[in-house]
Write a structure and sequence with these properties.
Elements: E1 3-7, H1 15-30, E2 35-39, H2 48-64, E3 67-71, H3 75-83
Parallel strand pairs: 1-2, 2-3
Helix pairs in contact: 1-2
């Protein structure tokens, strides 16, 4: 698997950066990259444009059916993604606690609680 690297500009990526990065990502996939590592370490003052940039990159990767691995996400960027409900853009599974008082299995003899 050939992994190439893409770096988000910091401290705050703009919508213009997003268009440029998506075009670059598409070229990487067209040139044979099977996965691209996206380094977000320089993003230290994220805004909604930074969320849009990452969302557009994810859509581009999905369009090509390829992997986008996001690394170096700082606490402020992660918190913003979580706040807007898009932390899944990082490609990490959500960690949720199981719902309380939920019965996982039911036996025929069990009484309703």
């Amino acid at each position: 698997m050939e992994i190439r690297r893409l770096r988000l500009p910091g401290p705050t990526p703009t919508a213009r950066d997003g268009a440029r990065l998506c075009a670059r990502l598409a070229r990487m996939y067209e040139d044979g990259a099977t996965a691209v590592e996206c380094d977000a370490g320089a993003v230290t003052a994220p805004g909604l444009a930074a969320v849009e940039v990452l969302a557009r990159l994810r859509l581009t990767a999905r369009r090509y059916g390829r992997a986008l691995i996001v690394t170096g996400v700082g606490p402020a960027y992660r918190a913003l993604l979580d706040l807007v409900g898009l932390v899944e853009l990082l490609g990490e599974p959500e960690q949720r606690e199981p719902a309380g008082r939920v019965q996982e299995g039911v036996e025929p003899d069990d009484l309703a609680v």
